[in-house]
Design a protein that fits this description.
It is built from 18 helices and 12 strands. By secondary structure, the protein is mainly alpha-helical.
Length: 541
């Protein structure tokens, strides 16, 4: 019997070879075609041949058996003992949501501590905590966030966002991520579309150890746990927003467990458009407020300067409002910022300063002759400054506390208001009260500098608290900017004093005003850059 010709081919098992009968019939041709498929084609065929998703049984175990009921919501549940820090969840989230380079909605950090004889290390995966009381939603001026009443998932409405980035400040866990290329903020929505279809979120399905699951939690229980800080070592207090993520472990966590980057201090973003807006609005308000105060003490002198001070306040307010739009990722939608007046201090700030600009403009057109209009403008401006104070105080950052922020913002208004009035008085040839105004300026500025530098007393703290971190930033990364701030303050007062000695010289007074404005700009940049609040492990921006 004649021998059948054979050939050596690769089988699907890597590296294996075996003889194959030459394809002469239908079966042989089908086998030949199957063996000629690439690995990608075989993988795709495997998916096409089954009626249910691959590994469905495995990821179904990571989903709750029933949807949330009344008073309940979905939440992430993380097993710290199972998480290995492989970041498969990060990669899956990035791929599923089509994130840009450098954009992450889920991050992995490290907690470590214990004793030399019994060390402890835990890797922590974290994303949006879909809080019971989300600060991002309350602070948004355009209502770009919504919390689903059934699932409890907090979603971001990209089309509504104007890129003001205020939610990145109000969220203590720094979950919302600003995307400069798109001009908007984006965040995790727990893959709500996949959940609705009965499929696990990308991070849950990708975890090889099953460390992430979706659970149903009671909102009331989450509120109770938040009262006793039952969340995660070193993380921001859960009492701020009541996060629902559940971190569990079968071990007793070491008391000294801290994030691996706990002792690292890095300056924050300076937000220069906001720096300019805050300083100039406070200059505008301070100018009118100090002028109104002077009118009560010296009516004739104030009347001679009212038109100039009103015009100066108006110009500063208009430039400040224009500068604020530069902070927006989508400034052409700035008009939407009025929608959140009910809950957002950003919207309230815009309304207050808008009213101030309108009143100050009318007051300036009338030559500053209406004391009632000037008083109303000053009151609207004071309300705007208070809105600015509350805007940062509600973030619950110690460096931005209500008291510290109030002293800084009102101090800037008074300092620049006095400096502006000195310059106007010198320009108008009214040198009688310039010396008194300069003395008041020196006293107020000295008190403000003492208040600003008081944080350095925390350098002696044994505990690495939030204020100690801010103090460390001021004497390390930000020491040059701090020196510039102090130098400009001293220079401004010195120039104002020279203006008095030079018989109310307007150029010296104008130079003093410019130096003091520059000094307050440096102070406000420090206000942003030295903020170092608690955060999730490993989430340095």
């Amino acid at each position: 019997m004649p021998a059948v010709p054979t050939a050596r081919v690769h089988l699907p098992v890597l590296g294996a070879v075996a003889p194959r009968v030459q394809a002469t019939g239908l079966l042989e041709r089908l086998l030949h075609d199957q063996q000629a498929l690439t690995a990608v084609e075989r993988f795709a065929q495997r998916h096409a041949d089954i009626s249910t998703p691959l590994l469905e049984a495995r990821y179904r175990e990571r989903l709750p058996a029933t949807p949330p009921g009344p008073g309940q919501q979905y939440a992430f549940e993380v097993d710290l003992d199972a998480c290995s820090g492989c970041k498969a969840c990060v990669a899956a989230c990035h791929s599923q949501n089509g994130l840009d380079a450098g954009e992450t909605w889920r991050q992995v950090g490290v907690l470590h501590g214990g004793e030399s004889a019994n060390p402890m290390l835990k890797t922590v995966t974290g994303a949006c905590h879909h809080c019971v009381d989300p600060a991002c939603m309350k602070g948004c001026p355009v209502d770009a966030y919504e919390k689903d009443p059934i699932t409890g998932i907090v979603s971001h409405l990209d089309d509504q966002c104007i890129g003001c980035q205020y939610c990145t400040l109000t969220c203590p866990y720094e979950v919302p991520q600003y995307n400069p290329a798109r001009g908007i903020v984006r965040k995790c929505d727990m893959c709500s579309g996949r959940l609705a279809a009965g499929e696990a979120p990308a991070c849950v399905q990708a975890c090889p150890n099953g460390a992430i699951t979706i659970a149903v939690v009671d909102s009331a229980r989450a509120v109770e746990d938040a009262q006793v800080d039952s969340f995660l070592p070193g993380a921001p207090s859960p009492g701020i927003t009541v996060p629902t993520t559940v971190y569990k472990t079968r071990e007793v966590l070491a008391r000294n467990l801290v994030a691996a980057d706990f002792f690292a201090v890095r300056p924050g973003h300076q937000h220069m458009p906001l720096v300019i807006m805050l300083v100039l609005t406070q200059l505008a308000v301070g100018t009118l407020a100090v002028e109104r105060g002077l009118a009560a003490l010296a009516p004739e002198l104030a009347a001679s300067q009212a038109s100039v001070t009103a015009g100066l306040a108006l110009i500063a307010a208009v430039v400040a409002l224009a500068a604020s739009t530069l902070h927006l990722g989508r400034p052409h939608y700035a008009f939407r910022a009025l929608r959140g007046v009910r809950t957002s201090w950003v919207s309230r700030e815009i309304v207050a300063f808008g009213g101030f600009a309108a009143l100050a403009g009318t007051h300036a057109m009338l030559g500053g002759r209406s004391s009632a209009l000037g008083g109303a403008a000053a009151a609207a401006g004071a309300a705007g400054v208070m809105c600015s104070v509350m805007l940062y105080a509600v973030t619950h950052r110690a460096w931005w506390s209500f008291g510290r922020t109030l002293v800084r913002f009102t101090g800037t208004a008074v300092v620049l208001g006095l400096a502006a009035l000195i310059a106007v008085a010198c320009a108008r040839g009214s040198g009688d009260t310039v010396a008194t105004l300069v003395r008041a300026l020196a006293l107020v500025l000295a008190a403000k500098l003492v208040a600003e530098l008081a944080v350095l007393a925390h350098l002696g703290d044994h505990r690495q608290g939030e204020l100690k971190r801010s103090a460390l930033l001021l004497i390390t990364h930000l020491r040059r900017l701090l020196a510039v701030r102090i130098g400009l303050a001293v220079l401004g007062v010195a120039l104002a004093a020279i203006a008095v000695v030079a018989t109310a010289s307007a150029p010296w007074a104008a130079a003093a005003l410019i130096a003091l404005i520059a000094g307050e700009l440096a102070e406000r940049a420090l206000y942003f850059a030295a903020a170092s609040a608690p955060r999730m492990p490993g989430t340095f921006a």
